[in-house]
Amino acid sequence: MDIHFNQVTIIGVGLIGGSLALDLKEKRIAEEIVGVGRSRENLELALSRGLIDRYQPDPESGVKDADLVVLAVPVGAISALGKKIIPRLKGGALLTDVGSVKSPIVRELEAALKPGISFVPGHPLAGSEKGGAGAARAGLFAGNRVILTPTPKTDPDATRRVRRLWEKVGSQVFELDPEAHDLILAAVSHLPHAVSASLVQAVFRRFSGEEIKRTGAGSFRDLSRVAASPPELWRDILSLNREPMLEILADFRKRLVELETYIKEGRSEKILEFFSEAKKYRDAI
Question: Would the pTM of this model clear 0.70, i.e. be above it?
């Protein structure tokens, strides 16, 4: 099944939206790419880099005549923006998103759909702590996974088309229901960011930046890297994915208390067992 769109509108031409735009142009999947965003400076940069063919600051005008609309804005803005543009979409248009939380977005946008418009929720598992059109690069999605979260209300043909789009840019695509997606992502993506931010908070509240730099501990640098991600992004993700995140945090707290108990009681054999088991799990993936 080949895939081609005359006009693709990407709302949010940052790392994800901009990188997808580059791939769509390189693979000749889109005839024309329209960029939409609040920052004219970022849109001008996207235009100068060849990510988009033209831009439109107003979302409702930008989606006019679009065959495919990609909502690549921060996750907290997806639902409101989607509901704003859906009435402006032409018949037969396809709508998708790249949000890392799915259940609340799927509920709100499915309820707002009008006849003839298909919504296929998606989440590419690719990214960086860097953002904006300047961070976009071709091939970002090659070899990475993309999760689609269709529901019984999702048009199967629309799902096939979005799947094919991601496959054409090199992604491995699989499907989950929205609730399953949100729980597993809370564990493998959202929790690590929460742990990283908590680690940085704990260390910097006890030691000075100069002391930390002087020791140059590689493990601290590795674990703290994602704490440099945009704070607004994580405010929105953890607020939207509240219940799954609380469930996973409770599991994590139990493991941390378990290790703390072994250290406090001097049970070296249990500490060894704890780390050995963790190593076995990590080596398996």
Answer: yes
Q: What CATH code is carried by the domain that includes residue 91?
A: 3.40.50.720
Domain carrying residue 277: 180-284
Tell me: do 127 and 36 sit in the same domain: yes
Q: Convert the pLDDT of each residue in 88-119 to its tens digit.
A: 999 999 999 999 999 999 999 999 999 999 99
> What pLDDT, on the 0 to 100 scale, is given for residue 211?
87
> What per-residue confidence (pLDDT) applies to 2?
82
Q: What's the per-residue H, E or C state across the chain?
A: CCCCEEEEEEECCCHHHHHHHHHHHHCCCEEEEEEECCCHHHHHHHHHCCCCCEECCCHHHHCCCCCEEEECCCHHHHHHHHHHHHHHCCCCCEEEECCCCCHHHHHHHHHHCCCCCEEECEEECCCCCCCCHHHCCCCCCCCCEEEECCCCCCCHHHHHHHHHHHHHCCCEEEECCHHHHHHHHHHHHHHHHHHHHHHHHHHHCCCCHHHHHHHCCHHHHHHHHHHHCCHHHHHHHHHHCHHHHHHHHHHHHHHHHHHHHHHHCCCHHHHHHHHHHHHHHHHHC
Which of the listed residues 176, 198, 217 is the one where a domain comes to its end?
176
Considering the domain architecture, whether residues 172 and 186 belong to the same structural domain is answered as no
pLDDT above 80 (res 129) = no
Q: In terms of domains, do 107 and 213 share one?
A: no
Model pLDDT, residue 130: 67
Q: Over the stretch 243-253, which tens digit does the pLDDT of each residue have?
A: 999 999 999 99
Residues 167 and 184 in one domain: no
Tally of structural domains, the chain: 2
